[in-house]
Amino acid sequence: MLHRGKTALVTGSTSGIGKAIAEALAAEGADIVLNGLVEPGEDEKLVADFESRFGVKVGFSGANLTDPEAIEGLIGYATRDFGGVDILVNNAGVQHVAPVEDFPVAKWDLIISLNLSAAFHTTRMTMAGMKEKGWGRIVNTASAHALVASPYKAAYVAAKHGIAGLTKVVALEGAEHGVRCNAICPGYVHTPLVDAQITDTARARGISEEEVKRDVLLAAQPTKQFVTAEQVAAMAVFLTSPSGDQVNGALMQMDGGWAAH
After folding, report:
1. More exposed terminus of the chain, fewer Cβ within 10 Å: N or C?
2. Catalytic, out of 77, 152, 156, 188
3. CATH, domain 7-188+228-252, list 3.40.50.720, 3.30.1360.70, 3.40.50.300, 2.30.42.10
């Protein structure tokens, strides 16, 4: 298998894109450290499910990624119990929508902390180990908003543009040490959270769910189709594979042509 003997840490991996990426890497033989927010007892079920399906070693940490000390604990756990992090996927994120003049400062701080600063901290804490091994792969889940902007998303767009810059810097620093760093920039991805948003928007606007998908969420995506979590996961596998060895510092668009406007 592609990643047998390697360990992948995937943040925000209890659902959606992060879980799909963790599953895809586990299917390639990587041991997995999961991270995210779950109800009590759900972590054990999640670990058992991964272990039974993929036959790899799986761990879980509910570390709060807005706290650098908690991130240090997460990396420490991965180092002690798994021998370090070979593949780092920075996926955890949160969103809030409001005009700049009304944007809550606490929401700004949260989004920048979780969507951008957490990726800096996990990277700085794993980079030395990757360089020492002479091999490492860092994949950042960015967004089409790392390339273009939308109104009312000041913090999210700022954070994702920051992820784009961080990706390029880390790629340059790791280039001669066998470390590769890239970002995936999907448009709207069909997840349970988006399903809920579709239902709520349809009710609020008095239009059908199909109209919400086509005219609201997918208005900027020329294909008028959602990206799937499995497609993002497949891109992550490619970027961590030998075929992706010379892809470094790239912002991989998966947005149906959104950023081509």
Report:
1. C
2. 156
3. 3.40.50.720
